[in-house]
Amino acid sequence: MDGIVQDITVGTKRGSDELLSACATNGPFIMSNSAPSANGNDSKKFKAENRTSGILPSRVIHIRKLPNDVTEAEVISLGLPFGKVTNLLMLKGKNQAFIEMNTEEAANTMVSYYSTVTPYLRSHPIYIQYSNHKELKTDNSPNQARAQAALQAVNAVQTANMAIAGSGVSDSAAGLAGQSPVLRIIVENLFYPVTLDVLHQIFSKFGTVMKIITFTKNNQFQALLQYADGSSAQHAKLALDGQNIYNACCTLRIDFSKLTSLNVKYNNDKSRDYTRPDLPSGDNQPTLDQTMAAAFGKDASLLGAPGIISSPYGGGAGFPPSIAFQQAGLSVPGVHGALAPLGMPSAAAAAAAAASRIGIPGFASAANAVLLVSNLNPERVTPQCLFILFGVYGDVQRVKILFNKKENALVQMFDCTQAQLAMSHLNGQRLHGKAMRVTMSKHQTVQLPREGQEDQGLTKDYSSSPLHRFKKPGSKNFQNIFPPSATLHLSNIPPSITEDDLKLLFSSTTGMVKAFKFFQKDRKMALIQMGSVEEAIQALIDLHNHDLGENHHLRVSFSKSTI
Fold this sequence. Notes:
The protein is α+β, with helices and mostly antiparallel strands. 24% of the residues lie in helices and 23% in strands.
C-alpha cells in the first residue's frame, strides 16, 4: 500500500530514523514535535533497546517480517483480542506495519502476550514490539482508504456486529467480520488421548490461538477454541475439518460456535487463556464461568458440566511443544495459510516422549503399560471381568488380583498409550457398587505365579486371547472407542434374534433396559440403553462375546449415541 503519513507525534527521538527510512518507499513523511537524529545511530539504539525490558510502553505497536501478501485485516486482527485498534499504517515495501491501540494498557497486554507466543500470519512467524512513537496520525487520502475501510469494518464488527456491505473492504476483512473467532471442536474415534497442548499446536498454525476450553458432552471429547480473528477460524475450519490427528483415529469435526468470546477462569490441563498467564490453576474448580450459559444461550448448553474431563496424562500438561510432528497425518495442500504437512508421531511414541520429557506425576515410566486398579469389590471382582472391561480400550495382556489385598489389581495393557487411554476413561467409574481408582503402577510387567505357587486363579495371562479388539491394524474398533455410557452398541446379531430376545437378555444382568433400537440399514447392529452407566458397564462385562447361536458371538461396546 502506498500510504502517506502526514504526522506522527513522537514521545522520544529514539527510532525516528528507522521509521523515516521505512516510509521512504511509501511517500512523504513528516515528523512533528521532534527532529530526526543527525548522527544516524538512533536506529541501532532503537533496535537494541527494544530487545530489553526497559523500553517504554506505547499505544503504537511496530510489526515486522510480514509476508508479502498480507492484508490489512490480518494485521488488524493481531490487536483485536486486546482492545480496539484505532489506527493502522502499512509499510508493504518494508514488510512492516504500525498499529495503534486505544489504550496503553491494551498495547502492553498485546506485547506481553506476543513475547511468549510467536504469532503467525499466512504460516510466517512475525515479530512485535513497542514503537517509540506515541501516536499515529494518517490522512484521508485515497492511498489510505483501503486501510481505513478495513479498520472501520473490523472495529464495527468487534463493537456492534454491524454490517459491512458496501464498505469496499477486502475479502479478508469481510470473512473476518462474518465469522465467529470461536470454533467448536469434537474429536471422534478418540483412540489416543488428545490434550489441550496438542490442540494448541495444531490450530496455532492458522493464526493466534487466544483461549481453549476442553470438556466432555454426550460422551465425546470436545473443545471450544478462540482465535484472535474470524479469518483464522475460517482457515482452520476449512483445512482441518474431517482430518485425523493420528492415522485412522482422533478425527476432528469442526463448526463455528455461536459464542464470540470465551471466559476462562483457570489455566490448567482443561482450559487455558494464553493472554492471561497470571490466572490461577483452580484445582478442583469448574473451568468455566457458569454465567456463560445464561449469557450465550445455545452454544453454552453444549458445555455440559465444564471441567469434568480428566487429563489423559493424569494431570500432566500433555504433549510439549518440543515434540516434532514428522509423520503422515494432517496434510492440507492447497489451503491458503494452512499447515505444511503436519503429522503426529505414532501415538504410543508421542505419549512416551511426552511423559519422559515433562515428568508426569504418577507416570512411573514412559514405557509403563501396567495399571493399578484399587477400591474394587473383593467379593465380586475377577480377572475375567477386568479383562473384558479394560479390553474396551486396549489389548489386555495380563491381570493380577493381589492375593492379600483383593480390592486391588494390576492390569497390563499392550502398551503405555493404551494404559493411559484406559486410565483416562475408567478412573472413577463404578463397578460392583464401588468407584474404581485407576492409576499407573510402579511395576513394569505383571509377573505370572511360579510353578507350584498358590494363586487361587487370581492371575491370568490373556496375551493370546482371541477377544483382543485391536490386534488387526486398521480395525474399525480403533474408530469406535468412547467413554463408558448408559447406551451400548451391539453388533454381530444373527437374523433370528429379536428385540425382545435382546431386551430379556440384558435385563437379566441385574440391570434395567430403558430403550432399544435396531440400526435401520443393518439389523446386525443395535443400540440398547441401560438404566445407568454402572448397569451398562456390568452388562458389557457379562454379555460381550455372549453366544447367540448360529455361530454368532455378541460384540458389545460403549456408544457415543443415545436413543
